[in-house]
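Researcher: Next entry in the queue.
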Amino acid sequence: MKNIRFETKKDYQEALEEMCLPLKKYYSPGKALLMIGHTGTHYGERTAELEGFSRVLWGLVPLWYGGGSSCLDDWIPEGIRHGTNPADAEYWGSYTDGEQAYVEMAALAFAVWMTPEKVWEPLSLQERKNFGRWIGQINTHKISDNNWLFFRVLVNCALCHVGAEYDKEQLEKDLNRVDDFYLGDGWYSDGDTKQRDYYIGFAMHFYSLIYAKLMENKDAERCEKYKERARRYAQDFIFWFGDRGEALPYGRSLTYRFAQAGFWCGLAFADVEAFPWGIIRGIVNRHFRYWFSQPVLDSENKLTLGYAYPNLAYCEGYNAPNSPYWSWKSFLVLALPESHPFWSSTEEKLPKLDSVKELPHPWMIMQRNQGYVTALTSGQYAEWEPVHVAEKFEKFAYSSYFGFQVPRSYYNLAQAAPDNMLAFCRDGYYFVRRRCDEVRMEKENRIYSKWRPMEGIFVETILQPCGKGHLRTHVIHADFACTAVEGGFALPYHEPSEVKSMGSSSAGSMVTSTMGSSEITLREGKGVGEISFCEADVNLLHPRTVLPLIRYEIPKGETRISVYVEGNPA
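Model: Structure for this entry, 570 residues:
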């Protein structure tokens, strides 16, 4: 994979084929089930095996639609025959409310809608009835009131497209409900939540852009609305991407990796030129190059669970071994003909972007330093609380170079590894910001938040960009005395001997390595600087990190602290 340049359509076809080949030996005899590993999920094994079958379709369908073929082509209709037959040993299942299988129906519906000649027409009349009844289960049960609504939209559009029974009333109801989540300026919420992460781009917009392309002659007004929202969202979302192709690690479901570029691929599919095509092509190409320069594949070229390297520490309970193949949604560009301006335009760099940019809807202030991205943020929260929700949404800063960290425990500092957090210690246990009681964007690029790490303490925090770094000011209101530590950016290293402490004192702490430098400096208040070599594999981007910290003794009453934080890549 390292030899693929990700420049031409042929490059993308070759990359997809290379990743298809190792999957063949993991299919079941009837080809309906695929499982490439042995880790668990909160849903059952049969659904995880269905997930393996379905998610490869996010890559295969665009390949077929764009005139290509793969080594799995004959196996897909065979798998559908077995998987949708209730009398078959490989039957995918019958479901109740809210089951994971409804997620996987989206990819199968996508295949029926886009390429019926590959997955529907090869079936007999009875097999089509079986398929229709199986996928139609999504119309008779409750599903999550968020981006899942689009799964049912895809199912009903696909069934309608091939003349099968579908629920027209439910389709319109779901499309209208999606509009309830629209916030303005191109932004949605993913359901009734304060969460504004990648699901806005690679779910809410991705599916709406597919709809906008395939339904533009039947539902023109709605399709144009989706396109216009996507144009506006692109003006903000571009700030999440660094010059080298990497995107900001932030939020949940990061094991989907290069699905982060799925939004840009959706723009191209729907012919929405939110930026000149050369810029969009550059974002996508560099993103693929970045990801396939990382160790994300195993020795067989199968995608692994993890982010920039194999890592289960931050994965959610819905991440099965096959889950990373959701990243294949970005292969949607394979549906574009060679004549499309996405392919014919010359690849361009990112346009000149503001060094500081306020994004009000996700409560973020974006900074750019040496082409990397930092987001200062407060206020987001996934209300259903996926694993490590505090670390994925509630740190003070997130960096496309330094990444962010999740704890192995809250019982000692190395395992808590609280980069860009103010962590309070009581009874040997660290407490961090989980949710905010109040958040507001203020003038002069400031974010104010009020939050409570534990009963008896509340904190008012102001975040503000400052040169290459940022300022944090905390007013701590404590009913009792306690200890707190505040971390800067976690600095990566290869060997411990590379790490040099440039000063740990009452002024703060700074560390350097061959991979850069990180500092946290006290501007107001009292504290003592120190460093902590973090537990291995707590960081999404780097297996080994060291963290500069300041330790505070917080008295009962009100305490004011201000620090300057800066991280510089090598």
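Model: The CA atoms of residues 213 and 414 lie 50 Å apart.
Researcher: Noted, moving on.
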